[in-house]
Amino acid sequence: MNGKAIVLTGGPGMGKTTIINYLSGLGHDVMPEAGRQIIQHQVKTKGNRLPWADQQGYAMEMFQKAVSDYDWILNTDRTTFFDRGIPDVIGYLMLCRLPVSSEIWQAARSRRYHKKVFITPPWKEIYLCDTERKQTYEQAVATYDMMRSVYEKLGYILVTVPTATVENRAAFIANALRKV
Question: Which of 20, 21, 108, 178 is exposed most, by the fewest CB atoms within 10 A?
């Protein structure tokens, strides 16, 4: 287990990236969400590994990036906050009713994050669609439920981040980490 790798997960549009960006602004090391980066790159290069074009290909891109990101932080002793982790790929595949390979399960079991995983709950008041986030609010809630299930199955302790200002959410996370 890598106690310096802290994951924020949940459904899309629940404030994870806002928290990650805030933590980055405070000087913390962060690992941005791979999904958005992949979508932006695929659109720019006219690729088709997109959630609305090739879900399996998109998942494999996310998986490769998540493993690469995790392996990269093994060479640092600094705490790094991740906008999603390897288990999120499993959740995505399960939501899409696609097979989860033994390679992906093995990576999720062997590349362990901090035992506490922070999950942002559904929060309709802040949910917005954009060019990369096309899910309905109901799909976002289903994603939240799936991520909760996958992380629990993998033995993580899920800590629900309260619906509050980004400052209060970040302070909540910091306080919860002090109580390890």
Answer: 178
CA distance 14 to 121: 6
Q: What tens digit of pLDDT does each residue of 71-107 get?
A: 998 888 889 999 999 999 999 999 999 999 999 999 9
Helix (H) or strand (E) holding 142: helix 137-153
Q: Find tokens 């009713």 and name the residue.
A: 97
Amino acid at position 5, single letter: A
DSSP state of 95: H
Q: Which amino acid is at 114?
A: H
pTM score of the predicted model: 0.90
CB atoms within 10 A of CB 177: 15
